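I'd like us to work through together how a protein chain folds, taking it slowly. To get us started, please write out a protein record for me. Label the sequence line and the structure token line clearly, so we can match residues to local backbone shapes. Once you have written the record down, we can walk along the chain together.
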Amino acid sequence: MSKKKVSDEQLYQRMERLVNSKRLYLMQGLSRDDLCNLLEIDKNRLGQIIKNCSNYQNCTTYINQKRLEYACTLLKEHPNYTIQSISRECGMSSIITFHRLFKKFYNITPKTYQQKYNSNSASE
């Protein structure tokens, strides 16, 4: 009996469900190997799936973007949280990396984002 081949799109959707439902992106040190093991595929296939089925260039970008999206939620919902605690909470390995990536993706620092969002919310 032969095993039915799973398409890249099916694997990507499966990965999305697992990563989002279990919030795996919050695990510090989550790696490409972890996702490969979870999906039972090799590194090359994972890279191909991410490139072909999403807007992400690679696995690291995929994981970091998930973390930054969660950070934005925390920055909006918890104005009293420090940037350092948000950095840790969203699975970033260091606050320096968090600042650099946040600024790269959103063209604004996390603190400025937090202040801007919360001043807009207060004036509504």
Notes: The radius of gyration is 17 Å.
